[in-house]
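Hey L., structure's done. Input below.
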Amino acid sequence: MTAASSDVRVVTFDGPGTPPVMRRVPRPAAPPRGALIRIEACGVCGTDLHILQGHWPGELPWPITLGHELAGVVEDIGPRLRTDATGAPLREGDHVMLPPLNACGVCEVCVDTPERANKCLNPTYYGRKIPFQRPPHLWGGWADMLFVDLDAFPATKLFRLPDDMPLMVGTLVEPYSSVTRAFNRVDALGLGAGTAGASVVIQGTGPIGLLATVAARQRGAATVVAVGDPETPRLALARAFGADATVSLEATPDPADRIAAVREAVGGGGADIVIGCSGNPAAGPEGVEMLRDGGTFVEMGQFTDAGSFDTSWHRFCTKEVQVLGSWAFTPDEVAQAMRDLHAIQSNHDWPRLHTNFDLSEDGVTAALSAATRMTALKATVVPAMAGDD
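Output:
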């Protein structure tokens, strides 16, 4: 958005495989129970890539604006919106994030089993499920602004970020929420299956894998091993952010050799916990073989449908493993992730994680390419950067 214009830039896509299209829409005023958020930064998620590859399990209302790992500033706020989702006061100028999946809070799942509100029967999705055609057309993170209206979408949950949390770290609250749920699933098992003191293997060294590495360390894992590629920037950053050892897919192409390398790194008997973050369905059976007997496998890298894989149920039985799926997060886990990330925000060199791109057709194209080719770990769209559009 330029100083000379009240128009707001917003990028849309017409369907899988289509290029980004820059549009301009009039800047709206905040509704009575809502706000206008100036987006400072919004990451490219693996889910965005899968949606553009046609992997979303169901229909989407194309054209849509993608982008959901966002952090921004309350530019305008209505008189009837006074608090965020946690009850904290909310005012103009506050820094905020908004998750893509917002549980309704009133369906039988949300009411009867709030710990499973991630499986809400009537969720509101930003960054994919609200069509661009719906005025005022600002429903995703790859834009100058995001429009929030709790009268139209009462499930919407804004979270005020801590005042001292850098906004680029704020963009990581959403992916850290997904990681938080995955580890909460493990820790809820009891029976000695928790993360503290455990050996943990992370399959995948993309942004989710890196944040899972950070979370494993934060929760007191004894040993953390990351499996992925490429060495630069991903494996190097995994070590910098807490992995004791890394196993390269390229340098160790045989799955049997990778399993052996992981077992050696964790002490020979196999890992207590394996977290699947790669997005590759075929990694699942390999991850199970990286476990000790009685270990726990958590798959959290299949938010979209990337396909199936061949396996033998015999191995699951004879190893007597726990196999858990983890889907997104509950509202409480967003708040938990924000607190946890805030607690360690000074422990890591977060700028090493981000590669920034401008909000333009070329900029978004380059961000998607860098994320797909893995030349950037977290490609991030920054509207304030100068672009061509």
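The CA atoms of residues 55 and 305 lie 5 Å apart. Residues 173-187 form the longest helix (15 residues).

-- N.
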